[in-house]
């Protein structure tokens, strides 16, 4: 199999001066919603590539990733500058276990994302399987400032389509914003505010929590869940939360 697939940029939509949704065509095979793929560029004769969650569902094209420009990083500054028609490299295989088929049966599915880690959940929410398997799905999307709450229209569309089953909780940590929780996800779990807002508890009896994003958030939320008798899910030892760290 070829080491890299040739991709072509379809659109590079800048939400602001740091956040972007990059859409591209590449002959990538079937993937599972929630998985990631390595995307790269040839820079000064070397290929620099990083993993990115796919935001599109497996049935949609073009492929789409959502990322923020890390000024000191080698890949994201040039990736951010790509324009329609530009080339990029895409790994031939997808990977990752933050997928619905890996999650044991339970009543409520919580999805917790910090920043750009909303991507895999958007892909999962576009597929029918998640709505068939869980009674309630709660999406918690934590960002620092309101302008970082990207994909509001896509999330609204999910909420309209699954009014009874879906609950969306935006959290904005560095601004007071009406209609959002203005605290970290850890504080909102610790002080009970999150569960009060959603109207149900997070419990080993009826919940599974998927977390994606910064290692700090994942570490801190894991500690809170463990204090409730929940433990990390492994294939050989089914548990109550699943994680994917971006950095
Ligand atoms: C499985 C997996 C999936 C990922 N999916 C995504 C994704 O969908 N979207 C996305 O934005 N990133 C994602 N990342 C991170 C991504 O692979 C890159 O590390 C990131 O885009 C920065 O690339 P870079 O080459 O510019 O800098 P790097 O050399 O990779 O990182 C430079 C610095 O930036 C920090 N950093 C890395 N990612 C982020 C981030 N997202 N926000 C803030 N700081 C960061 C790192 O801790 C490091 O100190 C994922 C990482 C993993 C392991």
Describe the structure.
- 21% of the residues lie in helices and 33% in strands.
- The chain is α/β, with parallel strands linked by helices and 247 residues long.
- The chain has two domains: 5-95, Beta Barrel (Elongation Factor Tu (Ef-tu), domain 3); 100-245, Rossmann fold (3-Layer(aba) Sandwich), CATH 3.40.50.80.
- The strands form two sheets. The chain has a six-stranded antiparallel sheet with strand order 4-3-6-1-2-5. A five-stranded parallel sheet has the order 9-8-7-10-11, with helices on both faces.
- The longest helix is centred in the last third of the chain and has 12 residues, at 215-226.
- The radius of gyration is 18 Å and the shape is globular.
- The mean pLDDT is 97.
- Bound molecules: flavin-adenine dinucleotide.
- The site of flavin-adenine dinucleotide has 20 residues, from β4 and β5.
Count all strands and give the number.
Answer: 11
- Beta fraction of the residues? 25-35%
In CATH, the topology of the largest domain is named Rossmann fold
Radius of gyration: 18 Å
- The CATH superfamily name of the largest domain is Nucleotide-binding domain of ferredoxin-NADP reductase (FNR) module
Ends apart, CA distance between termini: 29 Å
What is the H/E string? EEEEEHEEHHEHEHHEHE
* Bulk shape: globular
How many helical stretches? 7
Uncertain ranges:
none
**Major sheet description:** 6 strands, antiparallel
User: What value does the average pLDDT take?
Assistant: 97
CATH class of the largest domain: Alpha Beta
Q: Helix fraction?
A: 10-25%
How many separate domains make up the residues? Answer: 2
**Main structural class:** alpha/beta
Order of strands in the sheet with the most strands?
A: 4-3-6-1-2-5
User: What is the correct CATH architecture of the largest domain?
Assistant: 3-Layer(aba) Sandwich
Bound molecules: flavin-adenine dinucleotide
